[in-house]
Each structure stands twice: as C-alpha cells, then as structure tokens.
Amino acid sequence: MSAVTVSVAALLGAAAGVLVPRTAYRLGVVAGTPARAGCEHCGRPFRAGPGGWLGPATCRGCRARLGPPTTFTVTVAGLAYGLLALRFGADPVLPALLAAVAIGLPLACVDLARLRLPDPLIAALALATAAGLALAAAGTGTAVPLWRAGAAAIVCAGAYLLLALLPGSRLGFGDVKLAAVLGLPLGWLGWPAVLTGLLLPHLLIGPVALVLLLTRRAGRRTALPLGPAMLAGALAAFLLHPR
Ligand SMILES: [Zn+2]
Predict the structure, then answer these.
(1) What DSSP assignment string belongs to 178-233?
(2) Into how many domains does the chain fold?
(3) How far apart, in whole angstroms, are the C-alpha atoms of residue 150 and residue 3?
(4) Which of 66, 93, 171, 211 is the Cys-Cys partner for 136 at CB 3.0 to 4.6 Å?
C-alpha cells in the first residue's frame, strides 16, 4: 500500500471525524429521553435531515461546544483509517472496517459521556458492517468468512450475555448487543481475531480503572463504560490480525 493511499485514507478518516460530534451530542442523553433537537445553551434547533446530525462540535448560534471535541474525533478517526489502510491495503474487507470505525466512534463518545450505547447507533453499526462484509464476500467470491462472521457474532453475544448475567455484573445489555455486532468483522478476520477482540477490552479497562482510582477521579463504585474499551479492543484486533 502506497504512502499516498494511506494518506488519503487518513484524510478520509479525519473528514469522517469532523462529522461525529453532532451525532454524539444529540444522542448523548439520559436513557428514555428523546435525542436533543437543538443546542441546550441557546436553543438553536438543528436542521432537519442528515445535515442536522452530521457536523462539528460548535453551535452556529452561540459558538458553544456541543459534544466531544472535534480535534479528538478527527485525530482518532484519521489515525484509525490510516492504520487500517496500511494493514489491509486492497483487501475487500477494508470498507466494512472503515464503516465500523466511523459509527463506532460516536458510539464510544456517547458511552463515555452517558454510560449507554443507544440502539439506533448499534443498529447503524450492525447494518453498515453487515453490508460491508456482504460486499467483501461478493468481491472475494467466497461465503466462508461470512458464515464465520455470523457464528462469531453469536459466540461474542453468548460470552457477554454470560458475563452480564453474573451476580454483581456491571455489564449492560447494550454491551451484549455491541459484542454481537463487533463479532461480525472479528469473525470475518478469523477466530484468533475474535479471541483478541473478546479479551483485550478487559485487559484495557483494568489499568484505566486503576489509574482513575489512584488519581481519585473514580471511586470503587464508579461505573466505567465498557463500550469504548470494546471498540478500541476490536480495532486493535483488526490491526493485529489482518488476513
Ligand atoms: Zn447554541
């Protein structure tokens, strides 16, 4: 993969990152309440249609920052896109993985802000990933990885469901649904990727919780969102297990 292609992918990721904060802001509400229809500072409503959902963090009316900082989403998406292009090159699965990052990022931001994974975003992630993998299957001419993707989704959902049902578990059903969806691309890449994707989030969240405890930014009872760790773990598994 040439340096030009990787740079183009990184720029594409940065552009996708610009569009993330508005969605994260609108869906970053307490469970059971409707998505935000406008800026909570000046009341300026968002436009109807996709234009009202995709956009940077700043309100056009009062210039207040809405949602996660755009610099953060642009950096993460740009880096992820560049690294995925570098690792996967012309592999037909690349568009599915890029789509997963584009939708996974607002999902992670909402979970960080509100400790929840909204169903519409999980559904969008599932649809985009499944469509991308179906196209990749058409491109490679074999359906075997697609079947493995489906099987892995069931395995991941089962593993997280067991964890969620354990007494004292802090796992929510949003985490179970996310595990099922992330099982699709992980399964496409093979069972080693599935294993990495299942284990890494728990290895990641341990040290993060410890740092937060030591710096007194979290107490022993503070609930930590698992979604961002699951998404970061899946991304790391993609990068560690290209086919
Ligand atoms: Zn405003």
Answers:
(1) HHHHHHHHHHHH-HHHHHHHHHHHHHHHHHHHHHHHHTTSS-TT----SHHHHHHH
(2) 1
(3) 34
(4) 93
Quick one: tokens of 139? 């491109």
pLDDT digits (tens, 9 = 90+) for 52-81: 999 888 898 999 999 999 999 999 999 999
Separation of 65 CA from ligand 1 center, angstroms? 8
Q: Is the pLDDT of residue 25 over 90?
A: yes
d(CA 122, CA 67): 19
Four-CA torsion 37, 38, 40, 42, nearest 10 degrees: -150
Residues with C-beta atoms within 5 A of ion ligand 1? 39, 41-42, 44, 59, 61-62, 64
pLDDT interval class at 21 (50, 70, 90): very high
Lowest-pLDDT choice from 55-59, 77-81, 101-105, 119-123: 55-59
Domain range for 44: 3-240
